[in-house]
Design brief:
- With 113 residues, this protein is an all-alpha fold.
- 68% of the residues lie in helices and 0% in strands.
- The relative contact order is 0.12.
C-alpha cells in the first residue's frame, strides 16, 4: 500500500492508525498527501494541528487501557505509539496529573474494594 498515492479519508485513517509509532511525515505519505497539505487538511477536519491531536488521542487510549487491570505501563506505552517509555510517562503525568504507574495502582485498588 505504500505505492498507492491516492488520497485516503483523513478522519478514517487517523482514527484507525493514531496508535502507530509514526511521524507526521509518515501519516502524510500514507494518506497520499504532502506534509503541508496533510497539516492543512488535518486542521480543517479536526480543528487542531496533528501533533497535539495525536498526543491527546494516544493518552486517552492509554488511560482507557490502564483502567483495565490486565496490563503494564510498558505495554500500554507501546500499544499507544510511544517507543520511549519515559516520554510516555512524562506526557501522561503532564496531562492527567499523576504518573501512569500510580494511576494503574489506584485503578487496581478501586477494583479490589
Amino acid at each position: 500500500t505504500l505505492k498507492n498515492k491516492e488520497k485516503k479519508s483523513l478522519r478514517e485513517f487517523m482514527n484507525a492508525n493514531f496508535s502507530k509509532p509514526l511521524a507526521i511525515e509518515d501519516y502524510a505519505y500514507l494518506t497520499g498527501r504532502s506534509v503541508s497539505t496533510f497539516r492543512r487538511d488535518f486542521i480543517e477536519q479536526f480543528g487542531i494541528s496533528p501533533k497535539p491531536w495525536l498526543i491527546d488521542k494516544r493518552l486517552e487510549k492509554a488511560r482507557q487501557l490502564l483502567s483495565g487491570n490486565h496490563t503494564t505501563v510498558s505495554q500500554v506505552a507501546l500499544e499507544t505509539g510511544y517507543e520511549n517509555i519515559s516520554h510516555f510517562v512524562k506526557a501522561f503525568h503532564k496531562k492527567y496529573g499523576t504518573p501512569p504507574k500510580q494511576f494503574l495502582m489506584k485503578k487496581r485498588r478501586e477494583v479490589l474494594v
